[in-house]
Amino acid sequence: MLVLVPAFNERDCIAAVVADVLGAGYECLVVDDGSVDDTAALAEAAGAAVVRLPINLGVGGALRAGFRYAVGHGHDCVVQVDADGQHLAEHIADLLAALTAQRLDMVVGSRFANGGDHPMSWVRRRCIGALSWAIARTGATRLTDPTSGFRAIREPLLGAFAHDFPHHYLGDTFEAVLVATRRGYRVGEIPVTMRPRQGGRPSADLPASFSAMVRVCTVWLTGTTFDLPHRPD
Amino acid sequence: MSTAVKQALVLAVGGLLTAGVILRLARRRLLTTRYALGWLGVGLLITVAAALLPFVGRLGRLANMTPTAVLLTMSSVILLAISVQLSISVSLLQERLRTTAESHALLARRVEELEQRVG
Predict the structure, then answer these.
(1) Partner B contacted by A54 (CB < 8 A)
(2) Does A224 touch chain B (CB under 8 A)?
(3) How far from each other are the two terminal CA atoms of chain B, in whole angstroms?
(4) Which of the residues B95, B107, B109 would you substitute to probe the A interface, choosing the one with the greatest number of A C-beta atoms within 10 Å?
(5) CB-based burial of residue B88 (10 Å sphere; 0-12 exposed, 13-18 middle, 19+ buried)?
(6) Does the CA dihedral A136-A140-A143-A147 come out positive or negative?
(7) How far is A56 from A52, CA to CA, in rounded Å?
(8) CB distance A49–B109 less than 8 Å?
(9) Phi and psi dihedrals of B59, rounded to 5?
(10) Does the N-terminal peptide bond of residue A156 adopt cis geometry, omega within 30 degrees of 0?
(11) Phi/psi of residue A106, each to 5°?
(12) Dihedral sign from CA coordinates of A55, A56, A58, A60
């Protein structure tokens, strides 16, 4: 099992996140997504293995590099954790337990499962609600927080993602989940609490979020996205 | 000189000029053959269209269009096709660049690991 932390200019938090993960007893890989600050050096000093992308590829690009690393190093399971300190290392064990207990390919840590709540703007909450509804329409599963970046993924889905994974904003979360459920992979969720981000800047501003929503609608209506092979039985 | 002949001359000169510039760019390796061929085709097509201007005029009358409109429509379609083709190329290049960047980063990591092991 490998904990995968995609990071772009997260110098304020990365050391604490790595320390958290290592402290909980897991192996930690930080994929530095072409940061212009010293994120990579700080992560390395904190004890993580670091893969440095030469150019900024977006979260999805960093993740696929991480998936490829994991598969290449013989891991059959990864847990993806944000570099901004929102996610608590203590929940990693819960994600892993849910993978085996519920026989899932992917488990998403949800801020809203079981009536949970998380402070965010009304518009943002509604957008996430809409994405959740879109996934429920595939009939396979109900995910209350499909944009969450706190997930556990294991084979055979891990290998499929290592081969093809979208790299634009929301592609790595919503579209990945949507395509995985459409292709027969079992995706579930567990409730988690998240801290407010501990430093750094959010990766998406308002125009980026808007264009992402337009993209997502197009993807959902036309099916023009990446694809995965159907889940082998 | 009638208007039609003048138009045909302007077109022919424009077409040949385009083809000339493209050839020069290709010779200086600023354009690969793949793209040079496409644009050369466009230049030559314009020249041919100039020579066939009376025919173009007749074609236009069928659709109630002036010869100029026919030519403009044709060139728009060609430009559209070329832009779409370029967009496809750019998308492909993006994907390849991404895969290359990832592989590069993973290899660099692998070298680091090996260096650590060797001491």
Answers:
(1) yes
(2) no
(3) 85
(4) B109
(5) exposed
(6) negative
(7) 10
(8) yes
(9) -60, -40
(10) yes
(11) -145, 135
(12) positive
For the segment A76-87, what is each residue's pLDDT rounded down to a tens digit?
999 999 998 888
| A31 has pLDDT over 90 | yes
ipTM surpasses cut 0.95: no
Q: Is the pLDDT of residue A62 over 90?
A: yes
B57: tokens are: 């005029």
Taking the C-alpha atoms of residue A177 and residue A181, their distance in angstroms, rounded to an integer, is 6
- Find the range with the poorest average confidence among A176-180, B38-42, B98-102: B38-42
What are the distances in angstroms from CA A82 to CA A6, A18, A28, A194? 7, 10, 12, 11
pLDDT category of residue A199 using cuts at 50, 70 and 90? low
* CA–CA dist B36, B24 (Å, integer): 10
pTM: 0.81
Q: Which two tokens stand for residue A219?
A: 């993807």
Per the listing, tokens 């099992």 go with A1
A112-159 pLDDT, tens digit per residue, is 877 666 777 777 788 888 888 878 777 667 788 888 889 999 999 999
What is d(CA A220, CA A216) in angstroms, rounded to the nearest whole number?
A: 6
Please give the Cα distance from B63 to A118 (Å, whole number): 63
CB-CB under 8 Å, B101 with A51: no
